[in-house]
């Protein structure tokens, strides 16, 4: 329905996933949307996420405001917000080393107890 979005997916994911690899991503997103309840994520469904979750966006993101990142992180039992500096939407624009540093720290240090202390 949105040809320019498909073209963007192809440009962003083609180099890593091959000429048609972006279609796999598109299919996965379609399946995720189909599986999502019509009301979207509710407070009750978010409370079922019994695992640490890093919720992030860029400080220059015009699509997802900082307040939404904080609200989602607060709604998750073990959610941790992170705002990347000098970063617009989409996530591909994040500095790769900054992302790797945060992801490494989160996945190697984070557990339920640490998330509660860090919040």
Topology:
Layout: H1 3-17, H2 22-35, H3 43-47, E1 53-58, H4 66-75, E2 79-84, H5 96-109, H6 112-118
Parallel strand pairs: 1-2
What does this protein look like?
The structure is a single chain. The model has no long low-confidence stretch (mean pLDDT 82). The chain has helices spanning 3-17, 22-35, 43-47, 66-75, 96-109, 112-118; strands spanning 53-58, 79-84. Strands 1-2 form a two-stranded parallel ribbon. The chain has 119 residues and is mainly alpha-helical. It is 55% helix and 10% strand. Helix 1 (3-17) crosses helix 2. Helix 4 (66-75) links the parallel strand 1 (53-58) and strand 2 (79-84). It is globular, with a radius of gyration of 16 Å.
The number of helices is 6
Shape: globular
Major sheet summary line: 2 strands, parallel
- The average pLDDT value, as a whole number, equals 82
Q: What kind of assembly state do the chains in view correspond to?
A: single chain
């Amino acid at each position: 329905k949105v040809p320019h979005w498909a073209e963007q997916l192809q440009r962003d994911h083609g180099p890593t996933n091959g000429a048609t690899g972006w279609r796999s991503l598109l299919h996965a997103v379609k399946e995720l949307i189909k599986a999502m309840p019509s009301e979207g994520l509710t407070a009750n469904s978010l409370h079922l996420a019994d695992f640490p979750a890093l919720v992030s966006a860029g400080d220059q993101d015009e699509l997802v405001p900082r307040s939404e990142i904080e609200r989602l992180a607060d709604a998750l039992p073990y959610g941790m917000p992170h705002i990347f500096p000098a970063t617009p939407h989409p996530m591909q624009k994040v500095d790769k080393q900054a992302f790797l540093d945060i992801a490494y720290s989160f996945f190697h240090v984070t557990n339920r107890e640490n998330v509660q202390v860090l919040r």
